[in-house]
Amino acid sequence: MSGARATASQTAGPYWHLIDHPEWADLLRADGPNAGLATSRIELAGRIADGAGSPVTDAMVEIWQADADGRYDGAFHGFGRCATDREGRYRFVTLRPGPVPAAGGGNGWQAPHVALSIFARGLLKPLVTRLYFAGEALNETDPLLAAIAEPERRATLIARPEGAARWVLDLRLQGEGETVFLEI
Amino acid sequence: MTESPAGYRRPRPGTQPGYDVPDYGSTRLRHPVRPLLRVPHGPTETTAPAMSPALYAPMPDMTRHAGGEAVGERIIVAGRVLDEDGRPLRGTMLEIWQANAAGRYAHPGDTHDAPLDPHFSGQARVFTDEEGWYRYTTIRPGAYPWGNHHNAWRPVHIHYSLFGAGFAQRLITQMYFPGDPLLPLDPIFNATPDAAARERLVARFDLGITQPNHALGYRFDIVLRGRAATPFEEDHPE
C-alpha cells in the first residue's frame, strides 16, 4: 500500500456548464455512442428541490446504467449528463436497464436501476442516489432497497410511470421527503 | 472497463469535505440532513463509462479560440492520475474548465465586472497516456469575487472532472496555485479538514514542464480511490 490518499472533492460550482453538452442527455442520440442500437427508448425525468423546496436550477445530473441485459461491459454506453433547467428539471432519454448481479459476487440480483449523481454549487461532493422502476418485481428483494427500513424513504428512490415510456422521480436534497442518498 | 469485485477503499477521515459546511453558504439548503446509506460496491459502482477520444474529441489547448489567441499568461499544466495504490489510470478522460485571465467565466451566469475574452472559452478535454500522464495548455486564470460573504474572493483555480475506472472513483475537484494569499480565506478550499489533503489541491511550479521562451509549467497529480483489499473489508464504519 502506498501512502497516497484520494484527492479531495471540490464543488463543480455554478459555471460547470462550460463542460455541458446538452445532447449527452439523450443516450440514444443519432450521432452518439449508441447510434444504431436497436432498443426501445424510455425517458427519465424529475425535478430537484432544495431544503426550502426551491428548484435547484444550476445542477449537473449524471446517470450511469447497465444495458437491457444488466451488463455494463456490453455495446451500450450507459452514461448521460443533463443540466437542470429554470424549474430544477432534468430529463434523460435512454433504455430500461435489466437486473444487475448483486454486490459481493453472490448469486442474488439487484433490481433494474439507474445510478444518478448530482453535482452543483453548494455540493462539495456529489450526492449519489439510484432510480428504480415502480412495479418491478425485483424491487421487493433488492438488497439496497431492503436496507432502507422506512417505506416512505424507500419510495424516494422509486420512479413512477407517466404513460408508457416515461418515468418520473423528483429529488429532494434536504428536509421533508429528503431523497435517500448513498455513500458509495 | 476495469472491474474491481471488492470495490473501492473508503476515504480516510478528514481527507474529504463534508456536505454541511456553514462557512460556505450555498451548502445550507443543499446538504442532506438524513444519514447517507452506505452501500457495498457491486457492478454499478465498479464499472465506469469508457470515454474514448473517438467519442469525446480531445481539446488540449485553451489558448486559441475563435481564430485568435487568448489574453493572459500562458501556462502548461501536466500531471499524473493514479489510484491510492500508485497504479496509473490509463486513458481516463479529464474535463477542465476555468475563468479567463481577468477572472471571468464565458458563462451567462457570471456577471462579474471584468472583461470577457473572445478568444478564450475556458474548456479543455484531455486523456491520460499509458503512464497516467495528462497535459494541457491554458491561460493562468484570474481571481474573482463571489457573494458568499463580505469581500469574498475565490483563489485562482482550475476545475477538473475525472471519470476513473469505476463509478465510485468519479471525482470533480479544483486545482489551486502555489502562494495564493486567498487560500487561507477560502471556505471551499478549507472545507477539507485535513491540512495535507488541502495542500494536495495546490499545484506546484515545475521547471521541467516549463517550456523555454513559451510558458511556465505546473504539476498537478490527482489520486483516485484505490481498491479495497477484500470484499466488505472496509464496510465497517470508522
From TrEMBL, chain A:
One of its GO terms (molecular function) is ferric iron binding. Transmembrane segments: none annotated. Keywords: Dioxygenase, Oxidoreductase. It comes from the Bacteria. Residues 44-72 form the Intradiol ring-cleavage dioxygenases domain. Belongs to the intradiol ring-cleavage dioxygenase family. This is Protocatechuate 3,4-dioxygenase subunit alpha. It comes from Teichococcus aestuarii.
UniProtKB/TrEMBL annotation, chain B:
One of its GO terms (biological process) is 3,4-dihydroxybenzoate catabolic process. The keyword Amino-acid biosynthesis does not apply. Keywords: Dioxygenase, Oxidoreductase. Pfam families: Dioxygenase_C (PF00775), PCDO_beta_N (PF12391). Residues 77-105 form the Intradiol ring-cleavage dioxygenases domain. Residues 1-27 are annotated as: Disordered. Gene3D superfamilies: Aromatic compound dioxygenase. InterPro entries: Intradiol_dOase_C, Intradiol_dOase_core, Intradiol_RC_Dioxygenase, PCDO_beta_N, Protocat_dOase_b. One of its GO terms (molecular function) is ferric iron binding. Belongs to the intradiol ring-cleavage dioxygenase family. This is Protocatechuate 3,4-dioxygenase subunit beta. It comes from Teichococcus aestuarii.
